[in-house]
Amino acid sequence: MLWALHLLSAGLAPGARAEKPSLGLLWMLKPVQTVEANIADDSTGFVHDYFDLVNVRQENKQLTEEVTSLESQRTRLAELEVENRHLSDLLELREVLSTEAVAARVIGADATEVSSTLILSEGSNDGLRRDMAVISTEGVVGKLIAVAPNASRVLLINDHNAGLDAFDQRSRARGIVGGVLDGNLTMKYVDRTEDVKPGDAVVTSGMDGIFPRGLLVGQITQVSQEGPGLFLNIDIRPAADFRKLEHVLILTQKPPQLAPNVNG
User: pTM of the predicted model, to two decimals?
Assistant: First the structure.
């Protein structure tokens, strides 16, 4: 009703009789118009705020994706740096040994009561064969027992079926190192009279035709003379941590063999 009266009064000429009532009507309508204007302004502001919020959310999503991508790239670069350092260390070891060798990545493991082995990323296509020595920058790892075109399996020296010829670096006492069930090593057939002590380093002798001489096998942790046997009981902690191995070096060149004795 008020809106209709307002429309009618809007067409009056100045000085008309209805002018004063129309002015009063306008005064009465002013609060309504003010509210309408405020509502219109609020609606416009709400729309602007809504779109600003949508834009902010989109920008936040884009920034989050960019941060995630950067974090992923940084992690990958850090991993590549570690891998390159491992490979550089293996290359340096190969140069020190002055022998032909192939670097490989550890891609699997099998540590059970039956056997302790690792799976490597290289195989016969890379020149690998059975009974080749496998080492790391920490020490002796094992030997190849199975070779496929693109992968190979290593029998670890801590396997109870493994054995390598070695000696105490300090006293030169010689014996055969093999694995025991707790994952460590034992040195067999060392005479009770030998001077063998905890803390001594055990190294390969080069007499088994697989490992070259002088590679670190481990450190003696305990020596005992229990029982009536002829030999010492010697416990050894492996130099290499087989659970943490990521890269290894396979020696493709056999160590020099002793010439057989020729009678006559």
Answer: 0.68
